[in-house]
Amino acid sequence: MIPELGNFALILALLLAITQGTLPIIGAARGIPSWIALARPVVQGQFVFLAIAFGCLAYSFVSNDFSVLNVARNSNSELPIQYRIAASWGSHEGSLLLWVFMLAAWSVAVSVFSRHLPDEMVARVLGVMGLVSVGFILFLLVTSNPFDRLFPAALEGSDLNPLLQDPGMVIHPPMLYMGYVGFSVAFAFAIAALISGQMDAAWARWSRPWTTVAWVFLTIGIMLGSWWAYYELGWGGWWFWDPVENASFLPWLVGTALVHSLAVTEKRGSFKSWTVLLAICAFSLSLLGTFLVRSGVLTSVHAFATDPTRGVFILAFLVIVIGSSLLLFAWRAPKVGLGGKFDLVSRESMLLANNLLLMVAAGSVLLGTLYPLIMDSLDLGKISVGPPYFEAVFVPLMTPAIFLMGLGPLARWKQASLPELMLRLRWAFGVSVITALLMPFVMGEWKPLVSFGLLLAFWIIATIFVSIQQRLRNSGQGGLFAKLAKQSRSYYSMHLAHLGIAIFIIGVTLVNGYETEKDVRMEIGSTVTMGGYTFRFNGASPVSGPNYKAMRGDIDVLRNGEKIRVMQPEKRTYNASGMAMTEPAIDTGFLRDLYVAMGEPLENGAWVVRVYHKPFVDWIWFGCLLMAFGGMLAVTDRRYRLKMHSKHVETAAVEDGKRVTNNNTGLATGGRKA
Amino acid sequence: MKPRHKKLAIIASGVTALGLAVALVLNAFESNMVFFFSPSQVAANEAPVGKSFRIGGLVEEGSIRRQSDGVTVKFIVTDTAKVIPVVYTGILPDLFKEGKGVVAQGKLAADGVFRADEVLAKHDENYMPPEAAGALEQARIQKTVMTK
Amino acid sequence: MMRFLLPLAAFIVLVGFLAVGLNLKPREVPSPLIGKPAPVFQSQSLHEPERILASKDNLGKVWLLNVWASWCVSCREEHPLLVELAKSGIVPIYGLNYKDKRDLALQWLSQYGDPYTISVVDPEGRIGIDYGVYGVPETYVIDKNGVIRHKQIGPVTIESLEKKILPLIKELQG
Lengths: 674, 148, 174
Known about the structure:
Oligomer: heterotrimer
Number of strands of chain C: 7
Distance between the termini of chain B: 78 Å
CATH class of chain C: Alpha Beta
Shape of chain C: elongated
Number of domains of chain C: 1
Largest sheet of chain C: 5 strands, mixed
CATH architecture of the largest domain in chain B: Beta Barrel
Strand content of chain B: 25-35%
Largest interface: A-B, 45 and 40 residues
Shape of chain B: elongated
Order of helices and strands of chain B: HEHEEEEEEH
CATH topology of chain C: Glutaredoxin
Structural class of chain C: alpha/beta
Number of strands of chain B: 7
Largest sheet of chain B: 5 strands, mixed, barrel
Radius of gyration of chain C: 20 Å
Order of helices and strands of chain C: HEEEHEHEHEEH
CATH superfamily of chain C: Glutaredoxin
Strand order of the largest sheet of chain C: 5-4-3-6-7
Number of domains of chain B: 2
Helix content of chain B: 25-40%
Structural class of chain B: alpha+beta
CATH architecture of chain C: 3-Layer(aba) Sandwich
Radius of gyration of chain B: 22 Å
Strand order of the largest sheet of chain B: 2-4-5-7-6
Helix content of chain C: 40-55%
Strand content of chain C: 15-25%
């Protein structure tokens, strides 16, 4: 009964989505106020029905209803409750339901926080989101209904893939999807602007916080995925350039470009058509990511459930959504105009260069991801493109981008002077070169690549210092803290996010340069030494968990002959699926991780054991967190909060679209409450 | 700078950057593309010697032999028509099993043994890597043609 | 104007490759065995090891050969359907117990129900190789002359049963 209820709610949601995707847009075009006014209530109704549908699915999982095919395939009565809930989005069907549910949640957020926007604009934005929703709900109902029954009911479920039975996997997909789906708001704003032909600084001001929030979610989602791969796959790597990882990284790269381009459009009115194109691209790549993961077009270690008929549907959907938006872009963008002029050396030109570098990087990652498919399509042989390709292309492209990242925040808008910039940054440059040359000696061995990576990171940090110092010098009277407090949140948020990149680069550089790994045969009582730590294997003993049995290794970690820690990696076998899983033990530290994983058992209680020493590896994820935190801080900037209190000012600002905002004090009007 | 010069400078730098990017990509493809061959193709000397490539098929039943160091493993990959011996040092993936599909990446040594530096198995128990499935299908089609 | 069409052009090229790519999967390749005589086999029965079953004993009737194993997860998914089908008596189902252990297989059948007229064992997977089994489960429809008419890769579903397998059986029996 409950699954049927869910199915019914899904169908009602589809009807509302169709209404949402048609009437308000037509109403806005023809000037029919009652149709325009439909947008908000319909969005909220759709959200309620999707919430019911999702609740029904979650209930079926929690109550072990194995008469639902989806539950029988992805759950088991032995599965702990938190993973039964997580299993509702662990399957293909469930994850898509989560996708539309989140789309509805974002739509509701737009409908609530858009009181200060013109009604026609809101109607168009919500209408576009409604059309996207129609596509996804149809896809669910036609090819992947999560409520399909299994008749007769199974006695027991096949269990959730053990790899997904992990706290990281519980929150990784929702975060990632919040990011993917969040770009639909920027996309909808862009399409609405193209339809209305109205594209000004106000438009950028509205889309900007939405885009930033989506970007923050995506950043956290990717970070969690990388962290999960690190501790759950048992290989100790944190990024594999796997097609599925690339599918999430592509929208991130374009989204990063979009966030920066929106800043220019908001503050200077430039890059308008470019910003619109980026908004379309970011969401298109989110859709493409879904297609690549779900259709089985690409060989990937992550693609859990694949099915070609679904692929055909998503491809058709992609063609309609992306094709029509790009067509609309080709038709309307020439009328948008270029916006403010700027000099060859200016903050705008540097941001544009960075944008281009990010896009070229995204393009080369896309090419590398799809290249096996292209070769296969042309019958030129089966190939795979591995991490070396991506590293060889990505690093050289990002190097100038990071150099510009240091310059940009110090350059003036419109017109800057290169000699003056060089003068202001000569100390930053000197300090970062010297530190980068010397630091590797502290780590024990000088390596050119390590020095190079550190140079990039220290360059970012040094330029941040220079920027803040010069900013304070020009901040008038008062003590240091008073001056610091004077700066806007958006100013700090930029530096925080950039600092995150620096921390990330330090982590990547040092772990790649100095990690040690060994696969060794360990007899009971034997030891292996690595990075100043000695690991002593005391044997393995059987243990059992709620839904698995395991062999748990017992390994002492010694430093200078003293025992500092016991590590207990496991080799699990899950009861329901019979699948084996390696559960490594990780000792996390500020400067290093110790990582131990069990391989295979040998005779006499000996095991093959994998031991890693990974310096600075946690800095990688910490850097990502800083970036995300920077994004969050930007959204809470005063100019967005201000709006709450002064709605009338807001409306005035919206009407006066060409109003130039004051970028130095952060007092610009517009935007929405965060 | 005159506007005309400025435009020229922008276009020139754009073209240079794009050219560099294309050169980078082509160069990276040149050296980092990994081809896939089935054991039958390897047996027919179609695979390169001394260059890294991938093979795929089934791990032959009873073929896994562990060397005395405990870490080096020898096994045989078959596409049901031809076989190829593989040596790998390290920990095998959880889903690596006799009779299951596998894809390995490495180089073919002069003695005809494939020295793998990476062994891949899928995350899903019932799933066979498409490349391995393709190799088996190919071998079967050839066998049927031959017996006709 | 033209430069604004460039993104669209790039996208169209991309779609072309994706569309071709969708049709490339090895699973799309039809089995070369369809329309060919089913490979002959002769093996022990799972329940009574002393009894030997030969595939030629089935000449003259339409039958299903279902490849299964106790270690296979998807087999569990299709199993209730097979039990139902066996109860209906429409068609005899023969099991090929693939690369399995006898005790585990017997335990599995007693737990989930036994839809098979007879299950024969293939502990080394030799029969499986002749049939081109590359994943479990697989199901073959074999006609009165011992010719393979259909091969289902992966679990039998209600849909595949109703749309393909049952109509085909009816036609072959008719």
